[in-house]
Amino acid sequence: MAVAASGINLTPLSKADENFHRPTELKAFDDTKAGVKGLVDAKVNEIPRIFYHPPEDVHSAQTHIHIPLIDLEGVGNDSLKRKHIIEQIRDASEELGFFQLINHGIPTSVLEEMRDSVRRFHEQDTEDKKQYYTRDFMKPFIYNSNFDLYTAPTTNWRDTFSYVCAPNPPNPQELPEICRDIMVDYSKWVMEIGKLVLELLSEALGLNPNYLDNIGCNDGLAFVYHYYPPCPQPKLTTGISEHSDTDFITVLLQDHIGGLQIRHDNKWIDVHPVAGALVVNIGDLMQLITNDRFKSVNHRVLASHEGPRISVAGVFSTMVSPSDKLYGPIKELVSEEKPAIYRETTVRDFSVQFKSDGLGTSTLKHYKLNQAHI
User: Where is the Fe2OG dioxygenase domain positioned along the sequence (predicted)?
Assistant: First the structure.
């Protein structure tokens, strides 16, 4: 048996037998409140069976297509450069759904401190972290391993903490002191980046620069701070299963480890880390309101012997916050030649549907006209 940090036994793959009972082992893992980091601290040599992924989910051919790297220098004061940047963003959003940004204005020191603080939180003593461990999504600060632990078919090799900073930010005193100041500071930087990206996406659609901001795509912002410990058997599991994001856009800070891949033409493309860059990807809600003009594509993160891998995702969505605001295909993008593909929804209903479906399923399919709930 492999022993978790708390002393609870978790069955490794090589010991698989008829006595394996997934719900029991999930609860045993969850009850440690130590996450995957606890398993690494216990020096496990074999991963518990709950983390096993079918081989076809892990091994796949990769291609050498590169994610566009877009330089934002001059975007605010050079009309020719801005036009070129918008064209690059349009092409990337229509074809790959992903692009990287450099010269975005966030100081390197801020990026480094943000990554360092994620490491500090996850690598502090387990007893200090346990007070924040919860599966209550209404808490101002949430730390756990695998938000969908009890509903997903397989468990991913990562731990996460998160909080919602807009539209209703928590009292900073409710955030852990070990990472509080940089969380608040970084959120302000990302809110500005998000506003700029939404302006450029609006123009890429042929709309007023403030269009997406005016309809509320910038109203909500949440952060998830992922920690992927080194894995003793990375070919048997994954860091995050294949999925698409349910938001409008995601602004991601990743470190140098790598492992992020997107699916394109049924092949996997590496999103190679670029020093100082931010990764931006289109979410399901953006695909819905652009009537499939911009693509929300599936992506995943591989497990690795290296690590820990650190990433910080800024998620632009009001998620489950109460709102009656309806989102459907933008009228300017709908015509007889290109009729509406999706029905209207609130962000809350869309997010609840995602939580019900779980990671790795298509939330968009529920909103296709004449194809709902297929």
Answer: 217-320
* Residues 310/226, Cβ–Cβ less than 8 Å: yes
User: pLDDT grade, residue 322 (50/70/90)?
Assistant: confident
Question: Residue 315 falls within a domain, yes or no?
Answer: yes
**Distance between CA atoms of 360 and 317, rounded to whole angstroms?**
19
169: tokens are 């930010």
Q: What is the pLDDT of residues 192-243, one digit of tens each?
A: 999 999 999 999 999 999 999 999 999 999 999 999 999 999 999 999 999 9
**DSSP secondary structure string for all residues of 124-163:** S-HHHHHTTB---TTSSSEEES-TTTTTSSS--S-EEEEE
The answer on 176 and 28 residing in a single domain is no
Give the CATH number, domain containing residue 314: 2.60.120.330
Give the number of domains in the chain.
2
Is residue 11 included in any domain, yes or no?
yes
Residue 151 half-sphere exposure toward CB, CA atoms < 13 A: 11
* pLDDT per position as a tens digit, 169-188: 999 999 999 999 999 999 99
Question: What is the spatial distance between Cα 331 and Cα 93, in angstroms, rounded to a whole number?
Answer: 19
Q: What is the Cα 193 distance to its own chain's centre?
A: 17
Statement to judge: residues 339 and 232 lie in one domain: yes
- Whether 163 and 141 have beta carbons less than 8 Å apart is answered as yes
Name the residue range of residue 324's domain.
Answer: 61-367
Same domain for 163 and 189: yes
DSSP secondary structure letters along 160-229:
EEEEEEESSPPPGGGS-TTTHHHHHHHHHHHHHHHHHHHHHHHHHTTS-TTHHHHTTTTS-EEEEEEEE-
Please state, as a whole number, how many other Cβ atoms lie within 10 Å of the Cβ of residue 5: 18
Residue 350 shares a structural domain with residue 240: yes
Are residues 151 and 9 part of one domain?
no
Q: Are the C-beta atoms of residues 285 and 350 closer than 8 Å to each other?
A: yes
316 conformational bin, left if phi > 0, alpha if psi -120 to 50, beta if neither: beta
Report if pTM > 0.85. yes
Residue 342 lies in a domain: yes
